[in-house]
Specification:
heterodimer; A: 782 residues; mainly alpha; Rossmann fold; Helix Hairpins; 6% strand; B: 86 residues; alpha+beta; SH3 type barrels; 6 strands
C-alpha cells in the first residue's frame, strides 16, 4: 500500500484534512520514546487504498524540538511515497518556510493550499498556477473543512508518487550556494540519500547532521574560516533561514494580491482579542470561562436556577414533594428514573445529566443485569464475589469516570480548537514563569480539580518535556472531585467528635485544597531546581486566528480519548482492581472472606505489618490494635478515591460485629451518605488525634492517585523510568506532607525544625547548583 | 532610530535589523519569520505586562520581553508615540 505523509504548520488545518481523508479509519498510536501522537488511516477513494500518515504540526525542520525531529526522520527514513504539504493560504509566507525545507528532500511532493475560502472572503487572490510554476511541484487549492478539492489533491499526489523527484533549493542566490553544492557532491560521492537536504543541514551546523556525517564536517569548517557575511558573520544557521525568507518574500509572496493595502490591518481575530486579552478584562473573562466549564460539568444547580427560586420564595419541588418516589425513596416508575437524572428539586448541569444517564441508566443497568445473572448462576461464593464485587464493581468505578472526563475534555478541546487556549497561555505566562513553567501548564493543573485523567492528557499541549513531566506529577495535588468526599467526611467527623459539632468543617476542607496547591508549587520549584533542571522554556508562540471549532474534529478527539481510556480500563486498571479485591477478600490461608471479615484479609495483615511506618504521620503504631484501618483504606483508595470512605464503613461494620465498638450501629453507618459516621467509628476504635486525621487527608490528597490517573500518567510520561520515579515522588511527597502536618499539629514547636530543614535543603540546592551551572533558582515559597 | 522590540510602544512599527540571542531561541525567532527585513508591529501587551503580541508576516506571534530583547529594529518614524494610540 502506498503511504502519503501529511506535513504542515500547526493550525494549518492538517487534522481536519486528515479526518476528511481517512474518515473512520483513523487510529492513534504513540511514537516510540516520544509522547507525540502519530495518527494514521486509510484513504479509499483513489485507484488503490492509500495509507495516510499525519505527522506532527511543525514550523521548521530544526533539530531543537521532538516534533520536528520526528517529522524529519519520518520523511527521510520511512520514505513515504508522497508528502502532502498543507499550506495555510491565509498565512502564506510563514507556511512556505517549511515548504522550502521539505523541497530539499528527494521525495515526491504536492502542496495543498488550504483555507482558500477564507482568503477569498477577505477579497484577496492567490495565483495558484503561478505558485506551482515557481515552486516546481503541483499546487492544489482545497478546503479541508468543506471537503473541496480533496479528490483532485489525492489524484495529483497519486500521480506524483509514481515519479521520482530530486530535491531543489531556494538558496541558490545566497553566498553559501557554492558551499552547499560542494558538500552535496561530496555526500553524493559517499552514497548518502537526500544529499541536498543533508548538505544544507550540515552547512547550518545542525547537531544531528554533524553527528551523522563527521568526515564531511571539516570541509564546512574550512569554508567558514574564509567566509564572513556582513550581517551574519559566520552564523550559517541564520544565513540559511534568512535566505529562505528572502526568497519567499521575493518570489512566492507576490502570488498573493491583497485587497487591503494597509500592512497591519486589524483582522476579526484582532477585534476579538481587543476584548479577550484586554489588559483589564482579559483575566476576569478567563476566570468566568473557567467557572462556566466547571459549572456545566459538575454543578447540580444549573445556572443557580433553584437558588433563584429559593430567593423568590417559591422553591422548586423535589421528586419526593411531587409524590414520584416510593416510601423507600426509589422512583415510582421508569419514566421517573429518567426524570431523576435531570431534576430533583434542582436542575442538573449537562455534565451531571450525562453522568447520571451513563451511571444510573446505562452502565448501572447493564452491570446490575450481569450481576443478577452471576448471582443466580449458582457459582461458588468466592467466584460470585470476585466477578460481582471485584471485576464488575471495579470496572463500574473506572467507567463511571468516563462522563466527567469526556465532558471536561470536550470543553478543553473547544478551547484548544477555537484558538483561545493559546490566549490563556498568553495571559498567564507571567505568573507561571516564576516556577519555571509556561502559561500553558495552568490549564492542565486547574483541570486537576475536576479529574486528573483529562488533566494529564491535556499536558500534551506543553512543548517542553521537563515542564510536562513536572506538570503531570503535580496534577494529583489539585484535589479532584473524587477526593472531596474524603475531605468532607473526615472534616465533618472532626467537628462532630472533637468540637461537639460546633465549628466549620468547610474551613478544614478549604485549607486542605490550599495545602494541595502549596504542595504543588513547592514541588514544582524543587523539581525544576533539581531533577528536572532546565531553562524556562521559551515562549515564542503563534496566536492562531480564532475559528469556530468543528463538530467532526471534536467528535474525533473524544472518540480517541474514549477508546484510549476504555482500553486501559480493561487492562492495567482492571488487573490492579482485581488484585486489591483478592487481597481484601482472602486470608493468608486462602479462605474466601465476606466483606465484613475484611480484618482477617491478607491486606489487613499487610497493613498491620506496615502500620509502624505511618507512626510519624499520626496513624501508625500509636493507634494500637486497630490502627491499620487507615492504611487499608488508603490502599483501597487506589482503585478510586471514593473507596476510602466506603472502606471505613465496611470496617466499621466488621469492628462492630467483633464487639469493638459498643454503642455503634452498623446500619446507621451504612445509611450515612456523607461517611461522617464511618469516620467517627474509626476515631472511636483507634483514638486517632485531630492532627493524625488531618495528616490522613493530606496523605490521601498527595499520594499515588487512583489507578485511572496512574494509568494515564504512565502512558503520558512514556518513559518507564520517568514513570517509576513519578510513583516514588508521589509516595515521598505524601509521606513528608503527612509527617509535617502531624508533627506541627501535635507539637507546634516542630515548625522550627521543619523550617530549618527546608532552609537547609534550599541552601544545599542553591549551593550545589551555583557550583555547576548558573541557574536562576526561584526563591522558595514561604 | 534603532531599538529592541521589548522597548516598543503599542502600535509602533519597525523593520528587523538584527536578531541575537542564544542558539535555540534565535533559531526559533528565525523560524517564526523574524528575520532581517521583516516588518513588525507591536499589537499589545499581556494583562500582566509580559509577554507581548506582535504582528509579523501577516500573523500574530507572542513572545516574552526577554526574547523580544534579542530583536533589534529600525523604528518607522510615522508610527511613534502620538499616532500609535490609534
Amino acid at each position: 500500500m502506498k503511504r502519503f505523509a501529511l506535513a504542515g504548520n500547526p493550525n494549518c488545518g492538517k487534522t481536519t484534512l486528515f479526518n476528511s481523508l481517512t474518515g473512520s479509519t483513523a487510529h492513534v498510536g504513540n511514537w516510540p520514546g516520544v509522547t507525540v501522537d502519530k495518527r494514521d488511516g486509510v484513504y479509499k477513494k483513489c485507484a488503490e487504498p492509500i495509507a495516510i500518515i499525519d505527522l506532527p504540526g511543525i514550523y521548521s525542520l530544526s533539530p531543537y524540538t521532538p516534533e520536528e525531529v520526528i517529522a524529519r526522520n519520518y520523511i527521510l527514513d520511512e520514505k513515504p511515497d508522497c508528502v502532502i504539504n498543507i499550506v495555510d493560504a491565509t498565512n502564506l509566507e510563514r507556511n512556505l518556510y517549511l515548504t522550502t525545507q521539505i523541497l530539499e528532500m528527494d521525495v515526491p511532493m504536492v502542496i495543498a493550499l488550504n483555507m482558500m475560502d477564507a482568503v477569498e472572503r477577505q477579497g484577496d487572490k492567490i495565483d495558484a498556477k503561478e505558485l506551482e510554476k515557481r515552486l516546481g511541484v503541483p499546487v492544489v487549492k482545497i478546503s479541508a473543512l468543506k471537503e473541496q478539492g480533496l479528490a483532485e489533491l489525492m489524484d495529483k499526489a497519486f500521480n506524483e508518487s509514481k515519479k521520482e523527484r530530486h530535491g531543489s533549493t531556494v538558496l541558490n542566490d545566497t553566498p553559501i550556494a557554492h558551499l552547499i553544492g560542494d558538500v552535496r557532491i561530496a555526500l553524493s560521492g559517499q552514497n548518502v540519500g537526500n544529499p541536498l537536504f543533508h548538505a544544507i543541514k550540515l552547512v547550518e551546523g545542525d547537531e544531528i547532521e554533524v553527528e551523522m556525517h563527521k568526515e564531511t564536517v571539516p570541509m564546512v569548517e574550512e569554508f567558514k574560516g574564509t567566509f564572513n557575511d556582513e550581517i551574519f558573520g559566520t552564523d550559517f544557521e541564520a544565513l540559511v533561514a534568512d535566505g529562505r525568507y528572502k526568497y519567499i518574500s521575493k518570489y512566492f509572496a507576490p502570488v498573493l494580491t491583497r485587497k487591503s493595502k494597509e500592512k497591519f490591518a486589524a483582522t476579526r481575530s484582532d477585534r476579538a482579542d481587543k476584548v479577550l486579552t484586554n489588559r483589564w478584562a482579559g483575566i476576569p473573562i478567563f476566570l468566568v470561562i473557567l467557572f462556566l466549564i466547571f459549572h456545566l460539568t459538575f454543578s447540580e444547580n444549573f445556572l443557580f436556577i433553584s437558588t433563584f427560586a429559593d430567593w423568590a420564595k417559591s422553591p422548586l419541588p423535589t421528586l419526593e414533594d411531587l409524590g414520584l418516589l416510593t416510601a423507600e425513596g426509589e422512583p415510582i416508575n421508569y419514566g421517573v428514573r429518567w426524570l431523576a437524572t435531570i431534576y430533583d428539586g434542582t436542575i442538573y448541569s449537562p455534565g451531571v445529566i450525562v453522568n447520571n444517564i451513563w451511571n444510573d441508566m446505562l452502565v448501572g443497568e447493564l452491570f446490575g443485569w450481569i450481576g443478577g445473572l452471576i448471582e443466580g448462576s449458582g457459582m461458588a461464593a468466592w467466584a460470585v464475589g470476585l466477578l460481582n464485587n471485584g471485576i464488575i464493581e471495579g470496572l463500574g468505578a473506572v467507567l463511571s469516570f468516563l462522563p466527567p472526563i469526556l465532558t471536561l475534555f470536550l470543553f478543553f478541546s473547544i478551547l484548544e480548537d477555537s484558538g483561545y487556549m493559546a490566549r490563556i497561555a498568553f495571559i498567564l505566562d507571567r505568573m507561571f514563569r516564576r516556577f519555571g513553567l509556561s502559561g500553558r501548564s495552568f490549564l492542565p493543573m486547574i483541570m486537576g480539580f475536576g479529574c486528573s485523567v483529562p488533566a494529564m492528557i491535556n499536558t500534551r499541549t506543553l512543548a517542553d518535556e521537563k515542564e510536562r513531566t513536572a506538570t503531570v506529577r503535580v496534577i494529583p495535588f489539585f484535589s479532584c472531585g473524587a477526593k472531596l468526599p474524603i475531605l468532607t467526611a473526615v472534616a465533618g467527623a472532626i467537628i462532630l467528635r472533637f468540637a461537639d459539632g460546633n465549628g466549620n468543617a468547610d474551613l478544614i476542607t478549604y485549607s486542605m485544597y490550599l495545602l494541595g496547591i502549596v504542595v504543588a508549587i513547592v514541588s514544582v520549584l524543587l523539581m525544576r531546581a533539581t531533577t528536572l533542571k532546565g531553562e524556562t522554556p521559551p515562549f515564542i508562540m503563534e496566536l492562531p486566528a480564532y475559528h469556530a471549532p468543528q463538530f467532526k474534529n471534536l467528535m474525533a478527539h473524544l472518540w480517541d480519548k474514549t477508546k484510549h481510556f476504555v482500553k486501559k480500563a480493561f487492562t492495567i486498571i482492571l488487573a490492579s482492581t482485581i488484585l486489591i479485591w483478592v487481597l481484601t477478600h482472602f486470608g493468608f490461608d486462602w479462605k474466601f472472606l465476606e466483606d465484613e471479615q475484611i480484618n482477617e484479609s491478607i491486606l489487613a495483615g499487610l497493613s498491620r505489618l506496615v502500620q509502624p511506618l505511618f507512626t510519624p504521620l499520626g496513624f501508625g503504631s500509636q493507634l494500637g490494635e486497630y490502627g491499620w484501618v487507615f492504611v487499608l483504606a488508603a490502599v483501597a483508595g487506589l482503585i478510586a478515591k471514593e473507596n476510602v470512605i466506603s472502606t471505613f464503613a465496611t470496617l466499621g461494620a466488621c469492628l462492630i460485629a467483633a464487639g469493638v465498638l459498643p454503642g455503634f450501629n452498623a446500619d446507621a453507618i451504612y445509611a450515612d451518605d456523607t461517611g461522617i459516621q464511618a469516620v467517627v467509628a474509626m476515631i472511636a476504635a483507634t483514638g486517632v488525634t485531630v492532627p493524625g486525621l488531618v495528616s490522613f487527608i493530606a496523605f490521601n490528597m498527595t499520594t499515588i492517585p487512583c489507578f485511572a490517573a496512574v494509568g494515564t500518567a504512565k502512558s503520558e510520561l512514556g518513559d518507564k523510568k520517568r514513570f517509576g520515579w513519578t510513583l516514588v515522588f508521589w509516595i515521598a511527597v505524601s509521606y513528608i506532607v503527612g509527617a509535617i502536618v502531624y508533627t506541627i499539629g501535635s507539637w507546634w514547636w516542630t515548625l522550627f525544625i521543619w523550617a530549618a530543614v527546608a532552609a537547609g535543603v534550599t541552601c544545599l540546592i542553591v549551593f550545589y547548583n551555583k557550583g555547576k551551572i548558573k541557574l536562576k533558582l526561584p526563591k522558595r515559597a514561604k | 532610530m534603532q531599538k529592541t522590540l521589548d522597548q516598543f510602544a503599542i502600535g509602533e512599527q519597525g523593520v528587523v535589523k538584527s536578531v541575537g540571542g542564544e542558539g535555540k531561541i534565535k533559531r526559533r525567532l528565525f523560524d517564526m519569520g523574524i528575520t532581517p527585513g521583516a516588518e513588525i508591529m507591536l499589537r499589545k501587551r499581556a494583562p500582566l505586562g509580559d509577554p507581548i503580541e506582535i504582528t509579523v508576516r501577516n500573523y500574530e506571534l507572542s513572545l516574552r520581553l526577554a526574547e523580544a530583547q534579542c530583536v533589534a529594529l529600525e523604528v518607522r518614524d510615522e508610527t511613534t508615540a502620538g499616532e500609535a494610540k490609534r
